[in-house]
């Protein structure tokens, strides 16, 4: 460590006593050193115990463990020892904490509801959760993951509600991780998922503290990673990926309508282009006579078969998405809008694609943006291509075969050992009240069956539905 230019060591003279001090100036807050540590180390002090008693800082430890000393120095501690050859030292926490302020959510933005989002500081994120759930039952387990990064990982649960099997599964999987660095919560999500080879995410990530606090009250497990502005939620189900948290801030009729629109949009985004290819390649008889004339006219001068025409447009859309995401914000928006208009118009005028397919691909791309969880929208973008190739090979039969493969995969998929397709499979009528539609909050008096919580009741449903008159 002495070879590092940011490692500082000096002798602190106080009268006749010399104290040897060591710290990393890049990790330690110099204001804490000069304000809270050095002024309290006087010439009357003759032992490390007196330093511990005098310095007004909570986290102070006396140790001779070399490994602990190294770890503490590398996490922002100030070291003092009474003599140069002494093995016993005192470690005083003086960590330099730098993080951005709590801001509004960028990915899960909502018009109504709280406007706070997680930041990269784990202490700030824990505070955001504690503030929303000020109860002694809120349990926090903390671990260090990563041989090199030593990343702090915090696991949230509520004693008396959270199923201990779910909690123990998460703890065991995180403790068993063998990896050198953890740079984001996405690493944890990939490493502890039940099926790491599935394109479908099995753990929800969220940047909203209110959403994490809400699902903790339901009985789920929350995971926060130091340095990551997103928390993880497990176990989860497929329908939860299409439920925006803003649904709970709206009237149940409006929220249910928007949720159904999202589900329809997902199916439309996946199926519309493969159905176009299948029908034009094999099933002309399914096209109504009035529509057939329009399709024949639009494709009269197109030299490419439907599959190449569709792949060309789909890849163009994906290129525009990637370019818009990687470029600076203002430039990315311009590329997305101008590029889409220019490429679409030019491809139709050049006779490479039909205007009908261009409209369908554009609508499919627009429909895929309705998915509230970004990782699931990426999955939807991906699985369109297998459907497209199967439609070219065997028409509607190929689409049906691909759908059966996807459905079979989803039936086998689990999240922390819980069925991913619940409440459809296994069928659980009670959990349908907050699946495809959201019934009024007064009807949701029980926690989800799939979580198998220790306390199944959220509140008294009879009292919630009562409406007392003023004179009562």
UniProtKB/TrEMBL annotation:
Keywords, sorted A to Z: Membrane, Transmembrane, Transmembrane helix
Membrane topology: Multi-pass membrane protein
GO biological process terms on file: spore germination
Main subcellular location of this protein, as a coarse class: membrane
Gene Ontology CC terms: plasma membrane
Cellular localization per UniProt: Cell membrane; Membrane
Matches recorded under Pfam families: GerA
Membrane-spanning intervals of the chain: 260-282, 356-374, 386-411
UniProt similarity note: Belongs to the GerABKA family.
Entry protein name: Spore germination protein
Source species taxonomy: Bacteria, Bacillati, Bacillota, Bacilli, Bacillales
């Amino acid at each position: 460590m002495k070879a590092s230019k940011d490692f500082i060591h000096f002798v602190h003279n106080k009268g006749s006593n010399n104290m040897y001090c060591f710290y990393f100036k890049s990790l330690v807050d110099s204001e804490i050193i000069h304000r809270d540590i050095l002024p309290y180390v006087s010439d009357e002090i003759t032992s490390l115990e007196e330093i511990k008693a005098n310095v007004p800082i909570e986290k102070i430890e006396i140790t001779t463990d070399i490994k602990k000393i190294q770890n503490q120095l590398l996490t922002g501690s100030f070291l003092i020892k009474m003599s140069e050859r002494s093995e016993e030292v005192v470690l005083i926490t003086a960590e330099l904490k730098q993080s951005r302020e709590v801001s509004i959510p960028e990915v899960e933005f909502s018009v109504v509801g709280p406007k706070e989002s997680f930041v990269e500081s784990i202490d700030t994120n824990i505070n955001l959760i504690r503030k929303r759930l000020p109860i002694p039952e809120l349990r926090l387990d903390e671990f260090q993951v990563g041989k090199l990064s030593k990343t702090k990982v915090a696991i949230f649960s509520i004693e008396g509600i959270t199923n201990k099997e779910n909690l123990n599964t998460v703890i065991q999987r995180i403790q068993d991780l063998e990896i050198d660095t953890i740079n984001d919560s996405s690493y944890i999500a990939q490493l502890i998922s039940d099926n790491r080879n599935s394109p479908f995410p099995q753990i929800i990530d969220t940047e909203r503290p209110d959403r994490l606090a809400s699902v903790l009250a339901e009985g789920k497990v929350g995971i926060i990673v130091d340095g990551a502005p997103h928390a993880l939620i497990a176990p989860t189900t497929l329908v939860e990926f299409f439920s925006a948290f803003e649904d709970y801030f709206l009237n149940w009729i409006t929220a249910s309508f928007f949720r159904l629109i999202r589900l329809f949009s997902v199916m439309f985004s996946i199926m519309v282009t493969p159905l176009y290819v299948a029908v034009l390649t094999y099933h002309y008889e399914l096209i109504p006579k009035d529509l057939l004339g329009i399709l024949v006219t639009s494709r009269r001068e197109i030299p490419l078969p439907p599959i190449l025409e569709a792949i060309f447009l789909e890849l163009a859309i994906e290129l525009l998405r990637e370019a818009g995401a990687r470029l600076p914000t203002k430039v990315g928006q311009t590329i997305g809008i101008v590029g889409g208009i220019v490429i679409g118009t030019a491809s139709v005028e050049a006779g490479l694609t039909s205007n009908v397919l261009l409209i369908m691909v554009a609508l499919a791309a627009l429909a895929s943006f309705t998915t509230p969880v970004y990782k699931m929208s990426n999955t939807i973008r991906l699985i369109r291509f297998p459907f497209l190739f199967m439609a070219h090979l065997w028409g509607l039969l190929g689409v049906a075969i691909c759908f059966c493969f996807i459905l079979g995969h989803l039936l086998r998929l689990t999240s922390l050992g819980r069925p991913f397709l619940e409440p459809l499979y296994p069928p659980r009528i009670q959990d349908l009240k907050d699946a495809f539609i959201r019934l009024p909050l007064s009807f949701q008096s029980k926690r989800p069956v799939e979580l198998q919580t220790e306390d199944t009741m959220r509140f008294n449903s009879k009292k919630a539905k009562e409406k007392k008159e003023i004179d009562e």
